[in-house]
Specification:
Blueprint (H helix, E strand, L loop, with lengths): L1 E3 L7 E4 L14 H4 L12 E5 L9 H7 L10 E4 L13 H10 L3 E2 L3 E5 L2 E5 L12 H11 L2 H4 L14 H4 L7 H19 L4 H9 L1
Length: about 210
């Protein structure tokens, strides 16, 4: 799917790791607390949240997005998940995240192609292939034992657990393993490779006119 960000001011801001829920007890929001009023305001054509809007589970996106909408309309917000957005839930919570984003009027852009004028943004979480140092097996072993992702995200909740689950099932559910996120990486990488090999809208228009 391709989404077009209406071109008015020409201004786009990309932010990540807002962890908006951590500001609730202070009675503020991340934009105000971080002094970002000058860049995140109604003059933007779009705000892209590139992961970690909250610390999960999925239902926290409703309040997380509500902390952004006083600064610009929700229809100008484009959000994709980071690893923390799956915490307290499952690796297959994309449908819940999408539902919560759309419920407030924002756009969910996991594996989505965005255009702003002639600029193209390819949006996905991607994760990692663990192969930075050429020894993925060792890296996966270390990650599985020390990274919080593999004790805070589950494969699938038991039936009836609901959005994000609760303490009652967290202890008995199956935690994800590095092989699970590697599978997501491979899927997202294949999508990226396909998009990068595909012509942009501008290139297709030139081809049609020639």
């Amino acid at each position: 799917m391709t989404l077009t960000i209406p071109f008015n001011s020409g201004r786009i801001v990309i932010l990540s790791d807002l962890h908006a829920n951590t500001y609730e007890h202070r009675g503020t929001d991340p934009i105000a607390a971080l002094g970002l009023h000058a860049v995140v305001n109604d003059t933007l054509d779009g705000l892209i949240i590139a992961g970690d809007l909250t610390d999960g589970p999925a239902r926290k996106w409703i309040q997380g997005l509500a902390q952004l909408t006083p600064h610009l309309p929700p229809e100008r917000i484009y959000v994709m998940p980071g690893n923390h957005d799956y915490y307290g839930g499952t690796l297959t919570d994309d449908h819940l995240l999408a539902e919560h984003a759309r419920s407030v009027g924002a756009h969910y852009v996991q594996k989505e192609e965005l255009y702003h004028g002639e600029t193209r943004f390819l949006c996905c979480t991607l994760w990692t292939d663990f192969d930075l140092l050429g020894d993925a097996e060792t890296a996966m072993g270390i990650a599985g034992s020390v990274m919080r992702d593999y004790s805070h995200i589950w494969v699938d909740p038991p039936a009836g657990s609901g959005d994000g689950g609760g303490i009652s099932w967290q202890r008995s559910a199956t935690e994800i393993e590095p092989s699970d996120t590697l599978g997501v990486h491979r899927d997202h990488r294949a999508w990226l490779e396909d998009k990068l090999m595909s012509p942009t809208l501008a290139e297709r228009q030139v081809a049609r006119s020639s």
